[in-house]
Write a structure and sequence with these properties.
Elements lengths: L5 E7 L4 H11 L6 E8 L5 H8 L4 E3 L2 H4 L2 H14 L4 E4 L8 H5 L5 E5 L14 H10 L3 E8 L9 E8 L6 H31 L3
Parallel strand pairs: 1-2, 1-4, 2-3, 4-5
Antiparallel strand pairs: 5-6, 6-7
């Protein structure tokens, strides 16, 4: 009997390395309860769109400027999610803060990956290299990544998974970012996505 799959939409802003980790996990059978059915970028020409195309996944761009403001931007994304019957949403390097109204449409079904061990180096203004720069300036010996549910507080939702990464002497923000991605983000994001997908399928009675 074929297993039922939760339909996953992935929201991106840039190169899509975390999207690629999800695509690879799906190909390798590590996402048995989930299927990526849509990729949405809020940036024109993001390389993540190319990754989606190469994997045969429908993809589209929705920008705040084109939509005419945050509310219209979110309405357009929600419309796309409904059209593709998305059960859950994964923010994979999505650099736009979503409103409480948007989050309420998918309670405990929106995941985000953040490049630190929350509650360290998180919240408004902490994203990308800024996180790793802050970690190095603070002199921490261990950093890592966190996958958490998204709620109305930036980086404030329930933590699903974390993975620690040791900081090395001589690390730059760029070298630390690369290692956190490789050793933490690309491992825990697919694992957490599968966990949530499995609970959604179970909730549907399969």
């Amino acid at each position: 009997m074929e297993i039922q799959k939760a339909r996953i939409a992935v929201l991106v802003s840039g190169g899509g390395t975390n999207l690629q980790a999800l695509i690879d996990a799906q190909r390798q059978g590590k996402l048995p309860h989930g299927e990526i059915v849509l990729v949405v970028s809020n940036k024109e020409g993001a390389y993540a769109l190319t990754r989606a195309s190469e994997a045969g996944i429908p993809a589209l761009t929705v920008t705040r400027k084109q939509a005419g403001g945050q509310e219209a931007f979110e309405i357009e994304i929600l419309r796309a999610l409904k059209e593709h019957r998305a059960d859950m949403v994964v923010l994979a390097g999505f650099l736009s803060i979503l409103s409480a109204d948007f989050v309420a449409e998918y309670p405990n079904r929106i995941l985000n990956v953040h490049p630190s061990l929350i509650p360290a180096f998180c919240g408004e203004g902490y994203y990308g290299l800024r996180v790793h720069r802050a970690a190095l300036e603070r002199g921490v010996k261990v950093t890592g990544a966190t996958v958490h549910f998204v709620n109305e507080v930036t980086d404030g939702g329930e933590i699903l998974m974390q993975r620690a990464v040791r900081v090395r002497r001589g690390d730059t923000p760029e070298s630390l970012q690369a290692r956190v991605m490789r050793e933490a983000e690309w491992k825990i994001l697919p694992a957490a996505t599968e966990r949530v997908a499995k609970s959604i399928v179970k909730g549907k009675g399969n």
